[in-house]
């Protein structure tokens, strides 16, 4: 039987009644999903801190609980890997850039599309933006990949520690450095402020590099 989250934990003065309900509902889903791995207290803590990561900059407050739930789920999966509670061995690749709005999102889009469930891809930024670059969204749509469900987010310690490969794209010293991790630094133009025509060559180079990385990791790709 799973440990249930407490409603008291979600009675925060900075949350509307609807947000409190949405977060509590998210906590129940996560508690069920991670039953036997993490207790409700851990789930509550990660959900609250994930919410706080977005609360000060999200442009659509209505979606804050959903963003928090998705980010908390990713962080809990990472924590399970770090603590040895996930022994699946599925490769994890973390793509990092400055704003997590262009390069790293396109890389994640290609990685997820090509690897499907045979590898796990995450992305993050040292200074996350407010939204994904519209030109990057359009360029990826032309390649048959929809990245509109993604959102700029930071990287966290457990996420970086869980990754088998960390790919950096222009975040320099702000990117995390952990001994023993495999790092790849991809020198790519920043699509920020560029139109779709200028983003297409960046997109194509990212696809080439993602395919080469998956091949190196021995991860079969979809046709």
TrEMBL record:
Listed SUPFAM superfamilies: Phosphotyrosine protein phosphatases I (SSF52788)
Gene3D superfamilies: 3.40.50.2300, Corynebacterium glutamicum thioredoxin-dependent arsenate reductase, N-terminal domain
InterPro entries per the UniProt record, alphabetical: Phosphatase-like_N (IPR048716), Ptyr_pPase (IPR023485), Ptyr_pPase_sf (IPR036196)
Domain of life, per lineage: Bacteria
SMART domains: LMWPc (SM00226)
Domain Phosphotyrosine protein phosphatase I: start-end pairs: 91-216
Keywords per UniProt: Arsenical resistance
A GO BP annotation: response to arsenic-containing substance
Keyword Cell division recorded: no
Protein name: Arsenate reductase ArsC
Species whose genome carries this gene: Actinomadura soli
């Amino acid at each position: 039987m799973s440990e249930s989250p407490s409603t008291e934990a979600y009675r925060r003065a900075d949350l509307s009644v609807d947000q409190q309900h949405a977060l509590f509902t998210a906590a129940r889903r996560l508690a069920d999903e991670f039953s036997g791995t993490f207790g409700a207290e851990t789930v509550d803590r990660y959900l609250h801190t994930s919410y706080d990561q977005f609360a000060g900059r999200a442009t659509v407050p209505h979606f804050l609980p959903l963003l928090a739930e998705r980010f908390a789920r990713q962080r809990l999966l990472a924590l399970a890997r770090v603590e040895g509670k996930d022994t699946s061995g599925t490769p994890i690749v973390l793509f990092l850039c400055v704003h997590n709005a262009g390069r790293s999102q396109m890389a994640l889009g290609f990685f997820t599309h090509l690897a499907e469930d045979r590898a796990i891809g995450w992305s993050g930024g040292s200074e996350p933006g407010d939204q994904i670059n519209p030109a990057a969204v359009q360029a990826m749509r032309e390649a048959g990949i929809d990245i509109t469900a993604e959102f700029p987010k930071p990287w966290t310690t457990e996420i970086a520690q869980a990754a088998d490969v960390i790919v950096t794209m222009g975040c320099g010293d702000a990117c995390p450095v952990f001994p023993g991790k495999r790092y790849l630094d991809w020198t790519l133009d920043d699509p920020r402020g560029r139109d779709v025509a200028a983003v297409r060559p960046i997109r194509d180079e990212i696809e080439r590099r993602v395919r080469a990385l998956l091949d190196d990791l021995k991860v079969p790709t979809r046709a």
